[in-house]
UniProtKB/TrEMBL annotation:
A biological-process GO annotation: xylulose catabolic process
Residue intervals of the Carbohydrate kinase FGGY N-terminal domain: 3-246
Stored CDD domains: ASKHA_NBD_FGGY_EcXK-like (cd07808)
Gene: xylB
UniProt-recorded name of the protein: Xylulose kinase
Site (Important for activity): 8
Entries under InterPro entries matching the protein: ATPase_NBD, Carb_kinase_FGGY, Carb_kinase_FGGY_CS, FGGY_C, FGGY_Carb_Kinase, FGGY_N, Xylulokinase
Family note: Belongs to the FGGY kinase family.
Cited SUPFAM superfamilies: Actin-like ATPase domain (SSF53067)
UniProt catalytic activity: D-xylulose + ATP = D-xylulose 5-phosphate + ADP + H(+)
Function: Catalyzes the phosphorylation of D-xylulose to D-xylulose 5-phosphate.
Amino acid sequence: MKYVIGVDLGTSAVKTLLIAQDGTLKAEATREYPLYHEKAGWSEQDPEDWVTGTIGALKELIDLNGITGEDIEGLSFSGQMHGLVLLNDADRPVRRAILWNDTRTTEQCREISHTLGDKLLSVTRNPALEGFTLPKILWVKQNEPDIFAQATHFLLPKDYVRLRLTGTKHMDLSDAAGTLMLDIAGRSWSQEVIAAFEIPQSYCPPLVEAGAYVGTLTPEVSQATGLSTSTRIFAGGADNACGAIGAGILTPGLTLCSIGTSGVILTYEEDASADYAGKVHFFNHGQENAFYAMGVTLAAGYSLSWFRNAFAKGETFDAVLDGVGDIPAGSNGLLFTPYIVGERTPHADAKIRGSFIGIDGSHTRAHFARAVMEGITFSLNESIDIFRNAGKTIDTIISIGGGAKNPLWLQMQADIFRANVVALTNEQGPGLGAAMLAAVGSGWFPTLEACGKVFVKHDRVYHPNEAVSGQYEQLFRIYQQAYSQTAGLNHSLYAFRN
Ligand SMILES: Nc1ncnc2c1ncn2[C@@H]1O[C@H](COP(=O)(O)OP(=O)(O)O)[C@@H](O)[C@H]1O
Ligand SMILES: O=C(CO)[C@@H](O)[C@H](O)COP(=O)(O)O
């Protein structure tokens, strides 16, 4: 039997999937790693943790499943986007990686917007947001000049892991799109952008397609994992591009909802002509010559994880959500805004923070848990609103990520989004997309669409309940007022955060 492996370098953990030629999941292995929040708004990881975790998970995948390295034909990656890994000339990180959910760079974003003016949107197709990579490079340059002086080039998280596994250095277009330095339509580094901030061309790695063959494992990694040096390694893509591939979002008309640490609503774009005026992100897809637009809720699953850690430590998500189904839509008047690390869509605001509004003496922990789920889903609905207002039809949504594990949440998505929500059997998120890139690269299928027909399997469809949807529509209009009603208070409280 032949297999491919998908490696999903997530924010909370690296997940490795062993996938057979019929698309079935044969095994998986995961390694978690820590996040460092030294100051409010900061979020960092140690790239060495990613490498150790990936090698450990790959070894477990091979060791425990009675297969040999030679059985694995291809391996590819999906990675958390935007994280800055600054490297020296020996290809070693000069500091910890600054992640996508780190919001220290508001000043640098202002500088980028001011310097590039209209060019920013026309070339990079995105506004300057704290999470993107270019502002992080400028932050290190301005705040840690001694460290910056040691750096000679940069990579994104999964590119660094791939470098350590294969010894080859690349960045794929779908991930490069999130640096704010790529000419998205032209599919090349924007000379205008990098020159404007005096970033030498040599800082930017060679660009490849997500499906490109990039090499084989080094003998050391082969020995450490049990994988063979004959396994072909393919570049891989940004986690949202891979999530879209793994959910079969490969043709126009399809929409994805992903609730992982962050949450996204993503729609397929067959060319770069759509213009959302920067209200949503616009990036290159992992499928060649295609694109996608997406709105991002920074703390989607993270809000529920925070709630569990703060108020139900040690409990499973199922235990935390116990009783939530008995509470009516609207959590008996309790509303939650999931801005606990700032927000991106539709309010790009690093200083906003979350609220519970309408706390009543009768509310129990289950009301709070339901309000958290509803608030996250309302936030995602803001992105759906943007797409619908731009003329897109959104009637069917494929739902993935940890949030898709709970049937109640899937029904809530259908009710709030007023769309049919499709769950996948064996939902594996971006890791499956990475495995599909490896399967196509290994010659198992001629195209990603052909692979999707075998690998992506639909499960139950959740239809909106008209009465509940009507209630949620009213609640959503109330939710939409919460940002402007709480922004001033939160901005004043900013000075009191550590
Ligand atoms: N059984 C569950 N029920 C509801 N939500 C869940 C469940 N399991 C995980 N989640 C949510 O999914 C999130 C993790 O999703 P995942 O896709 O694994 O994250 P990432 O890849 O971003 O690290 C958690 O933060 C949690 O909010
Ligand atoms: O910043 C973004 C997208 O722009 C995030 O979606 C990251 O790519 C990480 O996502 P998780 O899968 O860890 O939630």
